[in-house]
Specification:
The protein is an alpha/beta fold. Helices cover 50% and strands 15% of the residues. It has 7 helices and 6 strands, in the order βααβααβααβαββ. The strands form 2 sheets. A 4-stranded mixed beta sheet has the order 1-4-6-5. A two-stranded parallel sheet has the order 2-3. The longest helix is centred in the N-terminal third of the chain and has 14 residues, at 34-47.
């Protein structure tokens, strides 16, 4: 299962209104990629006004516990194709391409209503289901 930055923020920030709902992740193997980590940093520091050093410490500790997927040129190319085909923003397309490319991830969990409308993405024989946090 791959998670979106909006899920990761709720998971890592105890004051977040959806924090309790994300605690299911403690017992579930899940993956992130560099875009999710950096979006989480950005939102935590610039929107939630959390301390940058504390945020970095939390994210680095978290990275030691989770599967972190790489992003390479092939993933970037797939992301651009997904963006055009599904009218996605660049970061969302890159996140989805990373998870779609990984054989270890079959589901993408997000709270983004526009991404949830996609329901699934396909790439050859690979299928990435897009699910709500509430379905976990």
């Amino acid at each position: 299962m791959g998670i979106d930055s909006n899920v990761l923020i709720a998971y890592l920030v105890p004051e977040h209104p959806d924090h309790e709902a994300t605690q299911v992740l403690v017992k579930r193997n899940h993956a992130v990629n560099p875009t999710v980590i950096h979006e989480t940093y950005h939102a935590s520091v610039f929107k939630l006004k959390r301390n940058p050093a504390d945020t970095v410490k939390t994210l680095l500790e978290y990275l030691d516990l989770v599967l972190s997927l790489p992003i390479d040129t092939m993933t970037v190319r797939r992301g651009l194709r997904l963006a055009a085909k599904h009218s996605l923003g660049g970061r969302d397309a890159l996140i989805l391409a990373s998870y779609l490319h990984s054989k270890q991830v079959g589901t993408f969990v997000t709270m983004d209503k526009s991404l949830l409308t996609l329901k699934e993405l396909r790439l050859g024989d690979r299928v990435l289901k897009i699910a709500s946090l509430a379905t976990l």
